[in-house]
Amino acid sequence: MGAHWWVRPAGLLLGALADAVIGDPRRGHPVAGFGRVAAAVESRCYADRRAAGVLYTGLLVGGAAALGVLAERVTARRPLAGVACTALATWAVLGGSSLAGHGSALARELTAGDLPAARTRLPALCGRDPAALDAAGMARAGTESMAENTSDAVVAPLLWGAVAGVPGLLAYRAVNTLDAMVGYRSARYRRFGWAAARLDDVANLGPARVSALLVAALAPAVGGSPRAALGAWRRDGAAHPSPNAGPVEAAAAGALGVTLGGRTVYPHGVEERPRLGTGPAPAPADLARAARLSRLVGAAAAVLAAGLTAAIARTAAARRRAAAPARVVAGVSG
């Protein structure tokens, strides 16, 4: 970035602001478009083998990263265009506003006792079967989804954008979308979806733990305790079958003072999840608190990502300046 170290952090902040103010586009969402492309590619290259899944995942993630590289090269000599490009990519891949909006609306519907509306809304938050859930089950499902997806849909893309720019934003969203499409342990995807699921695990190792730390730090804003959040993470996080959902869901359980986990019904089968936290089961009011916490964590992550990328760029520039005299001396002595 050189002298234009501010391009990436400014773009990340503007994109996060656009997501908070505008939300997702009503039509023609880029992630939905990627999903259609991924489905078309799957129809052509599906086979019940890991090798086919590796090819499928590599082709789509590599294509998304290449598009990001091309976009940055086209705007490299025009700082304002670079800011706009990064902001547009950030806005396209973030899902924080939509996530918190659905969580808040689900909490209102459950509070009002409108279970049909709540069941209609739940698939926008998670992949569980709403017909199998009562009000308490939907409150728990929504709260768990708020925690996990705040990491996946907000914190992780921002951090990948900080360290890898537009290619990082697009590639991460491709990885996470493919995991949501084929990363299930169903008969069809157990082998084919293996690569997407494992790549998503790797891509979220750092962001999930940053998310858990932010949840703990911001717990007082929703009436919670940082100590309780960190304690639940330390005590319960590793019991979760997902290496990344565990820390954020456990931290959220501690921050909200509730217990998460238990019998979980998916279209592909039933899973018995470990108990996270020590409080009562979440009520609709706790789901509303989780939505507020999600918004706060997203805002904090945007600031953190902007600060991180600014620090990376300025450190790189300082190293280049320090190396310049050495190159000059070497040239003279040669």
DSSP helical segment count: 12
Provide mean pLDDT, rounded: 92
| Count of discrete domains | 1
Distance N terminus to C terminus?
Answer: 30 Å
Amount of helix: over 70%
What is the succession of H and E elements?
A: HHHHHHHHHHHEEH
Proportion in β-strands: under 5%
What are the segments in which pLDDT stays under 50 over at least 5 consecutive residues? Answer: none
Shape assignment: globular
Describe the strand arrangement of the main beta sheet, using strand numbers. Answer: 1-2
Provide the gyration radius in Å: 21 Å
Which structural class should the secondary elements be placed in?
mainly alpha
Largest sheet: 2 strands, antiparallel
Number of extended strands: 2
What would you say this structure looks like, in words?
The protein is mostly helical and 334 residues long. It has one domain. Helices cover 73% and strands 4% of the residues. Strands 1-2 form a two-stranded antiparallel sheet. A hairpin with a 2-residue loop joins strand 1 and strand 2. The two termini are 30 Å apart.
